[in-house]
Design goal:
single chain; 166 residues; mainly alpha
C-alpha cells in the first residue's frame, strides 16, 4: 500500500514534482516515446493518416493502431493502462500508484511485449520485493518503457523502416 503524498507547502510541491521523483522522471518521457513511435508506425502504415494521428488523444491513437493491426490486443490494453496511469500522474498531483497496480501493469506487459533484455521480468522481481513505490529504483520504471519501445521499434523496422533513422 502506498502512502498518499500530501502537498501542504511549496517544499512538498517541489520535492514531489521537481526534486527527483523516479516514477515521474521515467513515466512521462516513456509515455512520450511510445506516442512518438505509434505515430511513426501510423504514418508508415498510411502517410495520409499523419494529420489525424497528430490530432488524436493518446488513447485514441492506441486504439487506432490496434484497429489497423499495428499493435495487438494485449499490447493495446497495456498501452491504455499506461496512458490511464500517466493521466493520473499528470492531473492528480498527489497520485502515486500502489505496488499492486504496478505489479498488475508489469505482469500484463510481460505477456504483451517480448522483454528483449529481461527488463520487465527484472522489474516484476523488484516489485515483488518492495512494499512501497518510493523504495523502487528508477530503472524499474525505465525498463518497462525500454522494452515496449524496443518492440514498437522492431515493428517499425519489420514494416520497412530504417533501423536507425526515422
Amino acid at each position: 500500500m502506498s502512502k498518499k503524498t500530501q502537498v501542504g507547502n511549496f517544499t512538498d510541491l517541489y520535492q514531489h514534482t521537481i526534486g527527483g521523483n523516479e516514477l515521474l522522471g521515467a513515466f512521462l518521457p516513456g509515455h512520450l516515446a511510445i506516442e512518438f513511435l505509434l505515430r511513426k508506425l501510423l504514418v508508415q502504415y498510411d502517410a495520409k493518416l499523419e494529420r489525424l494521428g497528430d490530432q488524436l488523444t493518446h488513447a485514441r491513437l492506441v486504439q487506432l493502431c490496434s484497429d489497423i493491426g499495428i499493435i495487438n490486443g494485449p499490447q493495446r490494453e497495456v498501452l491504455l493502462s499506461i496512458n490511464t496511469m500517466r493521466n493520473k500522474l499528470a492531473h492528480q498531483i498527489t497520485y502515486t500508484p500502489t505496488i499492486d497496480e504496478l505489479r498488475e501493469l508489469w505482469s500484463h506487459a510481460a505477456r504483451a511485449f517480448s522483454d528483449l533484455s529481461d527488463g520487465i521480468s527484472k522489474g516484476i522481481e523488484s516489485l515483488a520485493e518492495e512494499g512501497i513505490v518510493a523504495d523502487l529504483d528508477e530503472w524499474v520504471f525505465v525498463e518497462l518503457f525500454v522494452q515496449i519501445t524496443y518492440d514498437l521499434h522492431d515493428e517499425y523496422v519489420e514494416r520497412g523502416g530504417d533501423m536507425e533513422d526515422f
